[in-house]
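Objective 1b: paired records.
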Amino acid sequence: MKRNGAVLVAVMLIATLAAVAYAAETQKGTIKGVDIKAGTITFCPEGTTDNMMLKADKSIDLGMVKPDTKAEVTVDKGMVKGIKEIKKPRKAPVGC
């Protein structure tokens, strides 16, 4: 009985690790350029100076993406699945 439990725990651990390895990754950074014809963006992750050329999923409207935009990019298996612009925080009003 204890052996079955140990095997079950091991299988669940392996399945969890596999799911994490293939999960989409989200990175913050700056979109440096957009090539609508090629369906790609040039992205510089936060904290680096390296530009990455990423292929965008067909569901993303690259016409709405502007260069020099701070964004959060979701990448899954080398393909951009989502782009969310990071808005600058509003300044609080001064006074009463």
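Objective 1b, second protein:
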Amino acid sequence: MSESEVRRLLKEIELTYQAAKNGLTGLAAGMARHEFISAKMEKLDKQRESLAHIVGADRAMELLVQAIENV
């Protein structure tokens, strides 16, 4: 069960990071863009915390970095 949860969280992390990355080049400008990207980065941290509960803090960080590199 936790393996599928890890896969689900990693997919969410990839999608969240992709959305934040798209926010850098999207049509929004100024403060709206900053708030959007900040919200996505905060979501990434919560997803990392959820992952850490399953695999431990160090492994969660490794997996987060790998997921981001995949984007």
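The chain has one domain: 2-70. The CA atoms of residues 20 and 40 lie 6 Å apart.
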